[in-house]
Design goal:
Blueprint: H1 36-39, H2 52-76, E1 87-91, H3 95-98, E2 106-107, E3 113-116, E4 126-137, E5 143-155, E6 163-169, H4 177-180, H5 185-189, H6 195-198, E7 208-211, E8 214-217, H7 223-226, E9 232-233, E10 237-238, E11 248-249, H8 260-263, H9 305-311, E12 319-326, E13 334-342, E14 353-358, H10 368-394, H11 420-424
Antiparallel strand pairs: 1-3, 1-14, 2-4, 4-5, 5-13, 6-12, 6-14, 7-8, 9-13, 10-11, 10-13
Helix pairs in contact: 2-10
């Protein structure tokens, strides 16, 4: 029973005294508020799906795009970039054995002379002579009696700078594992490593010796340093310049021949001269060992770039290493002569040694292999791409086809079906068959 009489209503309720207008009730919606896409990064975008067919085609296209331009610049320019290099190579291995005594010159064998110039018909004449039992100067300034090979050759056309002078060895395996590791990096850096530190290191077996009943380490130790190439070369001398006809030297330097990164691997040694001995094959330069005399002091490996070049081992048995260079002056056509102090033996291991005078291009030296290799790789990619595309169009394979799973192709005699651990990813439970 209500306390309020019928027909009587209270008009002075709380709502009647509320000055705030009544707001319409909002309806709930699952639609995200404006701007949420920006907050959640739900922008329109493209997300490619890498199916095997598209991935094969994309990979083949990428390899073709990489290979063909390089092959074009290497071998297909007019003339090919590699063919723009001018060079002459002279093999002087048998000079001391076969060349006549200086000043009589004799033509070098045709197999010992190789050249590449713009005019293929350019005649390159090369002759040699030898000087036996003559005074030669070693890298440390010591004078000894030795042999020299004198090469005289023609340059049929001007060679633009930079002019690079290399020596080339064949059948010399610097890439042998034991040889390539045979050095002590800390010693080369300048640390005074003791005989005990060097013993048993990678320098073995050339780690040191006994001198005056005292064990001393070799400096530098190891097979690489001991077998350093020690032939030395004079700068080319122009024999027939115009006008006065006096011979002129085309000056070349042995500075700037090593990589800057290699120079950081070497430092001036902290050894005392009395604490170390030179490697066995350095006996000509240091017959009395290391002393405090200026001529017999241990070499400064930080400044000796020829040593740094030799210590960077080659990956193939035939290699060239930079000996001298001239980055400014062109080598004009004419007759030139170089004198070689012949020390390094190559006949013992059936190798050869040559000098190489060459220019270069943006693609490097004269090497047709690079262009041919890239053309071959590009051609193989085109062929394989065509085969894969044809296979996909003629007999497309359904993606995710379970018939190709290994357990659905079990050999006869073996039950088909996946092993529990491999297929289901769970352990077997009671009741599993």
């Amino acid at each position: 029973m209500s306390d309020t009489p019928r027909g009587v209503e209270h008009t002075d309720s709380i709502d009647s005294h509320d000055s705030t207008p009544k707001q319409p009730e909002k309806t709930k919606s699952r639609r995200p508020p404006n701007g949420l896409a920006v907050v959640l990064h739900h922008w329109r975008h493209l997300r490619p799906y890498w199916w095997p067919s598209s991935l094969r085609q994309l990979t083949g296209t990428f390899l073709r795009l990489c290979s063909m331009p390089v092959s074009y610049f290497s071998s297909s320019s007019d003339p090919p970039d590699s063919q723009k290099v001018r060079e002459i190579k002279l093999n002087y291995t048998d000079c001391i054995a076969k060349a006549p005594e200086f000043t009589t010159f004799e033509n070098m064998p045709g197999s010992a002379v190789e050249s590449a110039f713009k005019n293929a018909n350019s005649s390159v004449r090369a002759q040699w002579a030898k000087k036996t039992n003559t005074n030669v100067t070693l890298h440390n300034g010591r004078q000894i009696t030795g042999n020299q090979c004198v090469l005289q050759f023609t340059i049929p056309e001007d060679m633009s700078a930079p002019i690079l002078f290399y020596y080339q060895l064949t059948n010399f395996y610097q890439n042998h594992r034991r040889y390539a590791e045979s050095c002590d990096l800390q010693q080369l850096k300048g640390d005074a490593r003791s005989y005990g530190d060097i013993t048993g290191s990678k320098c073995t077996p050339l780690y040191g010796t006994k001198a005056n009943d005292t064990s001393k380490p070799y400096y530098p130790c190891g097979l690489i340093a001991n077998s350093m190439f020690n032939d030395s070369f004079s700068s080319p001398v122009w024999q027939n310049p115009p006008n006065d006809g006096k011979a002129r030297t085309y000056n070349m330097t042995n500075k700037g021949i090593a990589w800057d990164s290699d120079k950081d691997l070497y430092g001036k040694t902290k050894y005392k001269a009395s604490d170390i001995v030179p490697p066995p094959n350095w006996a000509k330069a240091y017959p009395d060992g290391y002393t405090d005399d200026s001529m017999n002091q241990p070499p400064d490996l930080k400044q000796w770039e020829a040593f740094q070049v030799w210590m960077r081992t080659a990956g193939l048995p035939t290699f060239s290493k930079l000996a001298m260079r001239n980055d400014k002056d062109k080598l004009v056509s004419g007759i030139y002569q170089i004198t070689i102090d012949d020390h390094f033996p190559t006949t013992e291991y059936k190798g050869t040694k040559s000098v190489l005078l060459t220019t270069r291009t943006v693609m490097g030296g004269r090497n047709n292999f690079l262009g041919i290799a890239y053309i071959a790789v590009g051609g193989v990619c085109i062929l394989l791409g065509a085969i894969f595309t044809a296979t996909h169009l003629i007999r497309p394979r359904k993606l995710g086809d379970h018939t190709y799973l290994s357990w659905n192709n079990a050999p006869a005699g073996k039950p088909s079906g996946p092993s529990t651990a491999m297929a289901s990813g769970r352990e077997s439970r009671p009741g599993d068959s």
